[in-house]
Amino acid sequence: MKKIAILLPLLAMIGSFRLPGDVASPAEALFPRLEKLAPAGCIPSSPPQVFGTPENKLEDGSIFDYMDGGGVAWLERGFQEMFHAEYAGEGGLAVTLDVFAMEKAEKALAALADERICPAGGEPAPFSPGGRIFRFPPDYYMYFPVSRHIVYLHVNDDRQSATLDRFAVEVITLLKENRK
């Protein structure tokens, strides 16, 4: 009995504990793979970040730590977790990657139809049905679904749109491989 009395406070001090290979969430297994991606000619400009819901905060907090009040629309549409990364290239090139994990694919599509999340207009994304591309020089950005994920990509120089399009295909490939 004394051993249990000593062990319980010790476990409480250590905190949650996982066996090697265990993951806390489905997206957590995906995030290390996303960290290895980068657009051609770019390197990470800061460490990637991960955000969860207010009830299930991840390493960098909740969606509200990333986008303040804009997170409400995402939560209403089934948001669970997100991965955020920023990259830098020559001449001040800046690329942003956000991957939002939703509860299910249907909720991802509904979120893309919500103008609080994805603006109306844009052109169809040829590499992803349901995706949209926006060009507002100097910016070029896109939203597109991949199963239960929504991907947002942005580059600060629309002349680099081909670089972003190629990176989008890499992200799609990784997300599709992750489903297997």
Could you provide a short overview of the structure?
The chain has helices at residues 2-14, 26-35, 63-67, 71-76, 105-113, 161-178; strands at 42-44, 49-51, 79-89, 94-102, 123-124, 132-136, 139-146, 149-155. It has 180 residues and is of the alpha+beta class. Residues 4-23 have low confidence and may be disordered.
Describe it for me?
By secondary structure, this protein is of the alpha+beta class. It has six helices and eight strands; from the N terminus they run H-H-E-E-H-H-E-E-H-E-E-E-E-H. It has helices at 2-14, 26-35, 63-67, 71-76, 105-113, 161-178; strands at 42-44, 49-51, 79-89, 94-102, 123-124, 132-136, 139-146, 149-155. Strands 1, 2, 3, 4, 5, 6, 7 and 8 form an eight-stranded antiparallel sheet that branches. A hairpin with a 2-residue loop joins strand 6 and strand 7. The N and C termini lie far apart (47 Å).
Detail the poorly predicted runs. Answer: 4-23
Portion in beta strands = 25-35%
What assembly state would you assign to the polypeptide chains in this entry? single chain
Order of helices and strands: HHEEHHEEHEEEEH
Structural class computed from helices and strand pairing: alpha+beta
Mean pLDDT: 87
